[in-house]
Amino acid sequence: MISLAIAGPAQNAFVIESGSSQLISLGATRDSITISPGSQDVEIYGYSTAPSLTWENTRSTSYYISEIINNDYHYKEINLNKGSTVQISWLASYSIQLLIFDDKSDFDSWSSGDTDQNPEKESSSSSYTYTAQKSSNHFIVFYNTYYEDTWVDVDMTINFKVHDLDSALTMESSEVTWKKSDYPYVVIYNPSTHLDDTAQVETSATAGMIAIIIALAIPALVIFLIIRLAQGAEKKKQKMLMMHQTPMNQPYGSGQVHGYRPGQVAGSNVQPTQNTVTSGTQPAKQMPSQTQSDYSRPTPRSCGYCGAGVSSKDKFCMHCGNSV
User: Fold this and answer.
1) 179: left (phi over 0), alpha (psi -120 to 50) or beta
2) What CATH number should be reported for the domain whose range is 53-162?
3) In terms of Cα–Cα distance, which of 185, 179, 156 is closest to 60?
4) The whole model's pTM is what?
């Protein structure tokens, strides 16, 4: 297994099994990369384009787990490229669960008890074949949910998918520093024939101009947004103050002071329900309302000679002819 730690603006950590390969893309954030394998037996390949996974290597191993207590687990971390297969056979003293995670965050969440995951298989003696759906570190877990402690004897065969090493532009087995302009893609390959062989490889990368520009631009953008928000808040405050000011003491017409009060008509100091006498004019007469309760009728008239009724316009009685 090769442990890989990348320092710089884009930091990653890799585990590369013997017989497997790991692709590193310098991308937009790194201008160069330095790889220091030390005394480890690894091969470093440089490419102008990303190589495909066309090679295959098969590695086998066996290991014995002497004890897994109740509600405890044992795991093995393996780097698998997409399409790699793992065949696992085991024999245990009691039934045990096999779980496989292809993401470290999922494994961490499960191991901390935050999430559950259904096992690939649960048995005291069985076999299982797994195919990697993506290139990542995988966690192969044996989990004991039985009330008794158990031992496990494991046989594992892995068919690694490996990057095409023949299409590389160059290969080194010692410390190298490559620029992105020369080799934007780097593959580290562990040629060991035994699955349990490990090697430690250190890498460091220098930041590219884009990363520097982004690092400088983000604080400047934040400061700009803060200033703009403060200016907008001040303008809004001033606008609200202007909206709430009354128009008193502002000139209106010929030097008049104008203000509004409830019950007044805009533009006039006259109460709308009050008749006002102006020089040279008479107040308008109010017509009596037809619904007034104090409205009076004229008194009826009659003839003084015969007693017949006459109207107020009659001069002679229409019954006897005498003057009324």
Assistant:
1) beta
2) 2.60.120.380
3) 156
4) 0.60
